[in-house]
């Protein structure tokens, strides 16, 4: 078995797009602070790059969730493995994801976060794979819409590997 990775989105293209997203978010929240919620582990690389490109005051928190459950419900189910350290009530929250695939993780997570009464609750994803969507998720900021291929790099893993690739690539298992 010889695994290989074909580049889909080169590093420069990803970084350029992240800079644009940072500008967009900064404009939308002009003058107001934003609280970024990084969904571990995949979103770490994207969150750090994006945070550097936001010009309004930024605070950050981290959350680990795992999705589980059968496909019979539209939102699936989500288990919080590590919760946020801080309360989000009254804050301008932007949830940062590396990828929205079936949408089950985020559909459920956004419902949980909404109940905590943030002032605003937005969703930002580096990658969106709409062909596989099962649960309806409204995405506010999207880096790239990609076809239905298994991608790695820029935080995304296959069996915990490849997260550190500086680009997004398609994994070929050989
Ligand atoms: O739209 P969905 O089909 O629900 O898939 C998207 C979710 O899957 C990945 O996380 P994963 O559970 O693999 O954890 P990781 O970030 O630690 O790799 C990704 O980071 C999203 O959270
Ligand atoms: O394409 C993917 N790659 C890695 N992790 C993922 N989680 C959902 N979709 C993907």
Automatic annotation (TrEMBL):
Question: Which cofactor(s) are needed, names only?
Answer: Mg(2+)
| Gene3D superfamilies, per database record | 3.40.50.2020
Question: Signal sequence span per UniProt?
Answer: none
Function statement: Purine salvage pathway enzyme that catalyzes the transfer of the ribosyl-5-phosphate group from 5-phospho-alpha-D-ribose 1-diphosphate (PRPP) to the N9 position of the 6-oxopurines hypoxanthine and guanine to form the corresponding ribonucleotides IMP (inosine 5'-monophosphate) and GMP (guanosine 5'-monophosphate), with the release of PPi.
Can you tell me which family this protein belongs to?
A: Belongs to the purine/pyrimidine phosphoribosyltransferase family.
Please name one Pfam family that this protein belongs to.
Pribosyltran
**Major place of localization?**
cytoplasm
Q: Name all Phosphoribosyltransferase domain ranges.
A: 13-158
Pathway(s) this gene product operates in, as recorded in its UniProt entry: Purine metabolism; GMP biosynthesis via salvage pathway; GMP from guanine: step 1/1; Purine metabolism; IMP biosynthesis via salvage pathway; IMP from hypoxanthine: step 1/1
- Protein name from the UniProt record: Hypoxanthine phosphoribosyltransferase
Q: Which InterPro entries match?
A: HGPRT, Hxn_phspho_trans, PRTase-like, PRTase_dom
Keywords in alphabetical order, please. Answer: Cytoplasm, Glycosyltransferase, Magnesium, Metal-binding, Nucleotide-binding, Purine salvage, Transferase
What is the organism field in this record?
A: Roseburia yibonii
| Intracellular or extracellular location(s) | Cytoplasm
| SUPFAM superfamilies named among the record's database cross-references | PRTase-like
Name of the top EC class for this enzyme: transferase
